[in-house]
């Protein structure tokens, strides 16, 4: 396609928007994420000599086109909803305005980046709502879909409000707090469970968490109590125990009693093992004495809803609005903006999707992210995005906060967009630009 | 954990095995994949100066430990089921034998690599069974979970029998056939559909595929016929049309008739758009005149079953068999082998999971993949793995071939393993090595 565009000189400005067509059944809202990596990608996109040589070797492309690719840079503009913003279906989360080849070439990787982190942040936010003030640690690297997925899932989860991650590389790359964990193999290689616990505490006299379910969870808890009594004179305490299997609701209560009766009232209980937000919610609502959760597979692969029905679609080319009419995949044309309306106490009330040039009274969600290929100085840091997510989750309508129920939120398509769409019912028309 | 192991000199040989605990509801079998990338990872694992400096900066590790990490190399052995092998729950797909720190450190990334490609190859194999001889192209990069996932999904799908991929990078890295595609935006930017088709054919006079559903699929097909009639004198033909939306069963039949009646009998019909193996199967079984399928999102994120319940577990340390007894996650101890039994016509009949040292009469599935940190010369190429998958899929019992029905396959745990497990019911015991 790119070769065809360059050959024909089709390099007029094109406007593409990324949006989600409909929310998955188990999502009441989305949390926008992935903009930082998208901007990095657009800033650094190059075809190096090796890439050009390989493309030449396959014999499908003309030399003039490969010369263009070698000089390719993304020089366009990007508007986007800031990371950490709560958003909904039919809302443009990101808009690219660039010459047609530039806006087109970036499509696949742009979707790949924005889609995945938005999937994970939206999933993670549900655990955040369910856990309240309790600790939440991402444990999911191993079953994430590849290394990039594992590292970016840790980022998206932290952005949505997780406390930290067990993925060290995410700590190095993004400064996310890293939490170490003891594996069952550590207990097994010591052959004696108490010996394993003692060894671990010697290495980590502070902030240690002992995994107590390798053989028998309640026995494990009793061994912890005995060990703690021996260590108390030396001023060493056991930070937490972890339960990774079984009926954690019941086990956490009995373990709590064993710890309390053994004088370990300040030893916390951390649970993990196939958790998701519905289990977290039911433990919290049921009053299980759990202080923190390790959420892994279900988070990093977003197992219940692993993808969003999203698209990056052409809305305008060379100043003319355009529209795709494929059955079930019709698009709303034009350059759009989201106008958010809130209640007096700041809670989200309704969003209007409007044309960028319409008069707007509420809050505008799309903000500049890149100008002429360079990042805007106003792009939020990860810490700022995380704060925004916390504010936005606190401002969610009550009906959207439940991790089990389905809540609706009103997103209105403005009359101006509907009129524009009707005017290009079958073939696109010239749009007078104001 | 590693710091603790090194501090205590716990560097005896450890044996870990990777296995799947149970098959997902919608999978009758798995196709092993990801070994090549795992071996590459193990061969190249290093902590460079930047990594060591960062680890030092966080202040949790002792200098002696960081020195060890700087010299860290994986020097162990790996046995594995060759890529492309059909396999089942409770079967060890990969075994690492190495010093405890080496075998432990690699856990997360090893699972991350073997798990993901096995997920995708197992999903892709179902479309391969459903499509028969028809073309299957991976279209899923954009909704894969990150770039690595997109590229490795293309590899795993090709390994399982897909014809090729739309992900160019997978073509460059693995030599997988790449198939280009025309997007709706290409049609939209030309404002006139026929003009877009003509422009595309000028650029690609051979092997072109025209996307006909941007506005109205049947109108699109009629425009293709008119265009083809004009091009015929010049000896140019239209290779295929693509339908990406609507009722593709019905549309493909009408489009076929329009093409045939318009003299385009040799123009093929390619369909895409939210396809998965059940839709492919129903189109094929219903006799829809479809020559090829583009399968995207549902493949690359394995949407119906995005993860496997898998583990990498310690089976033996310092010559002693060990066993985890956590509720619902008990493991079978010892170094294991898979013995496959076939019918006289080569069809899979039953697998026995046995101890490596047991006498075996059937086929052994686990073969050497690494020795002392170096890859075995016998590791299959991607082409060989793909051929193996084709042979294995052809040898599947009929009950396992359906993409809608559930079939059972017998995997027996040998008496020798059961005896060993009982002997270490609560605490591990010394195992006499034969």
Please count the beta strands of chain A (DSSP E, at least 2 residues each). 19
- CATH homologous superfamily designation of the largest domain in chain A: nicotinate phosphoribosyltransferase
User: How helical, in percent, are the residues of chain A?
Assistant: 25-40%
> Reading side by side through the largest sheet of chain A, how are the strands ordered?
13-12-1-5-3-17-18
What does this structure look like?
2 copies of one chain form a homodimer. Chain A is an alpha/beta fold. Helices cover 39% and strands 20% of the residues of chain A. Chain A has 2 domains: 2-121 and 308-423, nicotinate phosphoribosyltransferase (Alpha-Beta Barrel); 128-300, TIM Barrel. Chain A is elongated and about 80 Å long. Residues 427-434 of chain A have low confidence and may be disordered.
Provide tags for this entry:
19 strands; TIM Barrel; alpha/beta; 2 domains; nicotinate phosphoribosyltransferase; 434 residues; 20% strand; 6-stranded parallel sheet
């Amino acid at each position: 396609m790119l070769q065809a565009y360059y050959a024909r000189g089709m390099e007029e400005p094109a406007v593409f928007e990324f949006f989600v067509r409909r929310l998955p059944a188990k999502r009441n809202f989305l949390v926008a994420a992935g903009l930082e990596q998208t901007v990095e990608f657009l800033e650094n996109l190059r075809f190096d000599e090796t890439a050009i040589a390989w493309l030449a070797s396959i014999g499908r492309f003309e030399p003039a086109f490969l010369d263009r690719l070698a000089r390719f840079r993304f020089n366009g503009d990007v508007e986007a909803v800031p990371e950490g913003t709560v958003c909904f279906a039919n809302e443009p989360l990101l808009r690219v305005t660039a010459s047609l080849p530039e806006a087109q070439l970036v499509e696949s990787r742009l979707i790949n980046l924005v889609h995945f982190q938005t999937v994970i942040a939206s999933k993670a936010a549900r655990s955040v709502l369910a856990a309240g003030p309790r600790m939440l640690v991402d444990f999911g690297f191993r079953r994430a879909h590849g290394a990039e997925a594992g590292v970016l899932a840790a980022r998206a989860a932290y952005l949505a409000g997780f406390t930290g991650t067990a993925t060290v590389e995410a700590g190095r790359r993004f400064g996310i707090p890293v939490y170490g964990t003891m594996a069952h193999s550590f207990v097994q290689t010591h052959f004696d469970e108490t010996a394993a616990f003692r060894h671990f505490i010697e290495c980590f006299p502070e902030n240690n968490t002992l995994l107590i379910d390798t053989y028998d969870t309640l026995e494990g808890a009793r061994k912890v109590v005995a060990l703690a009594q021996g260590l108390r004179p030396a001023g060493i305490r056991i930070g937490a125990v972890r339960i990774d299997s079984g009926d954690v609701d019941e086990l956490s209560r009995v373990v709590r009693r064993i710890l309390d009766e053994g004088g370990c009232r300040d030893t916390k209980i951390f649970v993990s093992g196939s958790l998701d937000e519905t289990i977290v919610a039911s433990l919290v609502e049921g009053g299980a004495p759990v202080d923190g959760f390790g959420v892994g597979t279900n988070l990093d692969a977003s197992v219940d809803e692993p993808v969003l029905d999203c698209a990056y679609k052409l809305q305008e080319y060379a100043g003319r609005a355009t529209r795709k009419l494929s059955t079930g995949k019709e698009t709303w044309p034009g350059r759009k903006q989201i106008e958010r309306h809130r209640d007096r106490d700041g809670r989200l009330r309704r969003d209007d999707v409007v044309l960028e040039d319409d008069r707007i009274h509420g809050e505008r969600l799309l903000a500049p992210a890149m100008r002429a290929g360079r990042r805007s100085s106003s792009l939020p840091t990860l810490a700022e995005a995380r704060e925004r997510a916390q504010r936005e989750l606190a401002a969610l309508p009550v009906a959207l906060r439940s991790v089990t129920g389905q809540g609706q939120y009103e997103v209105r398509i403005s009359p101006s967009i509907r009129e524009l769409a009707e005017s290009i019912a079958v073939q696109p028309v010239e749009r007078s630009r104001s």
